[in-house]
Write a structure and sequence with these properties.
Bound molecules: nicotinamide-adenine-dinucleotide, zinc ion
GO molecular function: DNA ligase (NAD+) activity; metal ion binding
CATH topology of the largest domain: D-amino Acid Aminotransferase, Chain A, domain 1
Pfam family, one: BRCT
Catalytic activity: NAD(+) + (deoxyribonucleotide)n-3'-hydroxyl + 5'-phospho-(deoxyribonucleotide)m = (deoxyribonucleotide)n+m + AMP + beta-nicotinamide D-nucleotide
CATH architecture of the largest domain: 2-Layer Sandwich
Family: Belongs to the NAD-dependent DNA ligase family. LigA subfamily.
Shape: elongated
Strand order of the largest sheet: 2-12-11-3-10
Largest sheet: 5 strands, mixed
Protein name: DNA ligase
Number of domains: 6
Length: about 675
């Protein structure tokens, strides 16, 4: 988080004028009712682009440009502020913070010994005017000089009392926002009223604060971050507020019964050194995903009134404070689909498929939608532009549709009427839908997968047979199959002696499958057939795989730092199952791999170092093999099975009806062999 994020590239004067107009329109919508078409990241990139263009073409700067103005110059007000309500300058990382602090200390001519460090609340600034202890007026920030009267919102803002503890005359400044719970409720109310919703808590707060007449009332939250006496007030309190350190002013504010962030995990602190400031910045950033309200950075202020007074203000922002920005946690993207999955416990959960979007350091393609109620409560539709939230390690979630970006082409989201995994009924009595089979539902799918042709290849074990065995509680997972007795199987309905013996023989054959298939049967997330083969060939034994930590697992080609810990964690979870497999005598080694686990490409193997592609119909000794089995054969013989022909391909095995891959191989002068020739080459590895 050290560098400033990128900016929009502006090519010429026309593009510049368009960019300025877009920034003005967006900011006007953003501060008015939160209906901007841009997310914050896009807006910030745009403004940085405008700034960069203006730096290079100072003669072309338009008077209405948003740069250097409070609220991007897009807002006006008619209630003058007693003291301007300004913006904050930004820093992006520790180095920039240190530069800012150094220049501030040069300006005031002494080191700053006390820094106040607070969260930057992501809402709307408001000035709350109290006269003799009574709340008399609420004013928005506006253009910084004058704001808009929003006194109608009095009484709907938690944390902003009608009366203070003392009969004092004072102006409180702070942020109006919505907590996650308030946002949910606001969405539900609006959904019930006009079938639409708010895009995110900040725009819900903006819309709610500024709308005078709404048939429904939404609750807001206030957090104070400053108190100002009137400039001409010379009372004892006014003098005290002017002279106290910021942190003590905030103590006084909360003593008046006004909410501050004091009781939250991101309470303001006073730091003596920049190291301590940075430590608190990191703590606040780490706490962000769990907060009940949005923050978009950390505000660092000179705590001492004397330092603030000497530092003063620029026309746009105080010089004694700075915003340490955190990466955006929310973006607008498209909802392209909804998938339904039944989880381990039988819970049926929808998952949003998104147009990929970069968020807080990773690309997000899927996001949680929690449950059906969540979809209806938000009135989500397929094709909607949606706000997606992700911070740190939290699972990304779809916050809401951006209703004002609808085109009319949006479609209702299909809701399943039966369990997507087993086809049985859905228990809809709770908000979280469940398959009526509960945990057993997942078991059917995972056992059926393990028994599949490309895994343990257990012939004669159809899904209804698996259901029967689960219902009779003879098995709970696929390892239990290897413990079934002849008598148990015979006791099942529609199960004769012949099928019983066939099934038992299939179980015996399954025990002899190589490690790569046994591993694949485990169904570890992200490890399909070819990945399982790679893992098996890399480690050689199940013991070695189980002993591997994330770093060791990452040595396998194709497993990155994100996937490795998942594999390790899932294997740990599967330990009891694997133990049962071991005890049942299932094969736990990979043929042809040195048990030390190292050698995967011994030079004496016929295909070592070769990338082999197979296409067309197999014939001769390969005729009976599935494509997966041919691929296994290639890897046993030391080669790498690949699915497409490229310049890196060493060999194409082309059967009849080979088609385009053959043409491409010829064009690239890749060696082409028939299935028979290939069988000859790898004869000692044939199954
Ligand atoms: N999506 C859009 O179209 C769009 C348009 C305009 C602005 N924006 C977003 O708004 C941001 C600029 O917002 P801004 O001009 O309201 O604020 P700012 O970034 O200039 O910061 C100043 C504001 O910080 C707030 N604040 C929060 N916690 C505070 C604390 N502890 N102490 C002091 N102040 C605190 C106050 O409201 C203050 O007015 C941009 O970075 C952009 O992301 C988005
Ligand atoms: Zn089910």
């Amino acid at each position: 988080m050290t560098d400033a994020p990128p900016s929009t590239v502006i090519a010429d004067e026309t593009a510049y004028a368009e960019a300025v107009q877009l920034a003005l329109d967006s900011a006007a919508a953003y501060y008015a009712d939160g209906t901007s078409t841009l997310d914050d990241d896009a807006y910030d990139r745009l403004v940085r682009g405008i700034e960069a263009y203006e730096g290079e073409h100072p003669d072309q700067v338009l008077p209405q440009s948003p740069t250097g103005k409070v609220a991007g110059g897009a807002v006006v007000g008619d209630v003058p502020h007693t003291v301007p309500m300004l913006s904050l300058d930004n820093v992006f990382g520790a180095d920039q913070l240190a530069d800012w602090a150094a220049s501030l200390e040069r300006r005031i001519g002494r080191p700053v010994t006390a820094w106040s460090v607070e969260p930057k609340l992501d809402g709307l600034a408001i000035s709350a005017r109290y006269r003799r202890g009574r709340l008399v007026q609420l004013v928005t920030r506006g253009d910084g000089v004058a704001g808009e009267d929003v006194s109608h919102a009095m009484g709907t803002i938690v944390g902003l009392p009608d009366r203070l503890a003392d009969t004092v005359t004072v102006e409180l400044r702070g942020e109006v926002m919505m907590t996650a719970a308030q946002f949910d409720e606001a969405c539900a109310k609006r959904q019930a009223h006009d079938g639409t919703t708010f895009a995110n808590p900040r725009s819900a707060a903006a819309g709610t604060l500024r709308t005078r007449e709404r048939p429904y009332v939404c609750e807001l939250t206030f957090f104070g971050y400053g108190a100002l006496p009137a400039p001409d007030d010379s009372s004892e309190l006014a003098t005290r507020l002017r002279e106290l350190p910021h942190s003590e002013v905030m103590g006084w504010v909360s003593g008046q019964g006004v909410q501050t962030t004091d009781a939250t995990p991101v309470a303001g602190i006073v730091a003596e050194t920049l190291e301590q400031v940075q430590k608190r910045v990191d703590e606040i950033a780490a706490a962000r995903p769990e907060l009940e309200f949005g923050i978009d950075g950390i505000v660092v202020k000179c705590d001492l009134a004397a330092d603030q007074a000497v530092a003063g203000f620029s026309s746009r922002a105080p010089r004694w404070a700075v915003a340490y920005k955190l990466p955006a946690t929310e973006k607008i993207t498209k909802l392209v689909g909804v998938e339904w999955n039944t989880g381990r416990t039988g819970i049926i959960a929808p998952r949003a498929v998104l147009e990929p979007v970069e968020l807080d350091g990773s690309v997000v393609t899927y996001a949680t939608l929690h449950n059906v109620a969540d979809i209806t409560r938000r009135g989500l539709m397929l094709g909607d532009s949606v706000t997606v939230y992700k911070a740190g390690d939290v699972i990304p979630r779809v916050e809401a549709p951006v209703v004002h970006l609808r085109t009319g082409d949006e479609q209702p989201i299909p809701i399943p009427s039966v369990c997507p995994s087993c086809g049985d009924a859905i228990d809809m009595s709770q908000e979280r839908w469940r398959c009526v089979r509960g945990r057993a539902c997942r078991a059917i799918a995972s056992i059926s997968y393990a028994a599949g042709r490309d895994q343990l290849d257990i012939e004669g074990l159809a899904d209804n047979r698996i259901k029967q065995l689960l219902d009779a509680e003879m098995i709970a997972d696929f390892a239990d199959l290897f413990y079934l007795t002849r008598d148990q199987l015979l006791s099942l309905e529609r199960m004769g002696a012949v099928s019983t013996d066939n099934l038992l023989a299939a179980f015996e054959r399954a025990k002899a499958q190589p490690l790569s298939r046994v591993f694949c049967a485990l169904g570890v997330r992200g490890t399909g057939r070819s990945m399982s083969r790679r893992i098996a060939r890399h480690f050689g034994t199940m013991e070695a795989i189980r002993a591997a930590d994330a770093l060791a697992i990452q040595q396998v080609e194709g497993i990155g730092p994100e996937k490795a810990p998942v594999v390790v964690a899932e294997l740990a979870e599967l330990a009891p199952l694997i133990d049962k497999l071991v005890a049942a005598g299932v094969t736990m080694t990979e043929p042809g791999v040195d048990p030390s686990g190292s050698a995967t490409s011994a030079p004496e193997l016929p295909l070592s170092g070769m990338s082999v592609v197979v296409t067309g119909a197999m014939s001769g000794p390969l005729e009976e093999l599935s494509r997966n089995q041919v691929n296994e054969l290639i890897e046993r013989a030391g080669g790498k099975a690949s699915s497409s022909v490229s310049a890196k391909t060493s060999l194409l095995v082309a059967g009849e009806k080979a088609g385009s891959k053959r043409a491409k191989a010829e064009q690239l002068q890749v060696r082409v062999v028939s299935p028979e020739e290939f069988a000859e080459l790898v004869s000692e590895f044939l199954p």
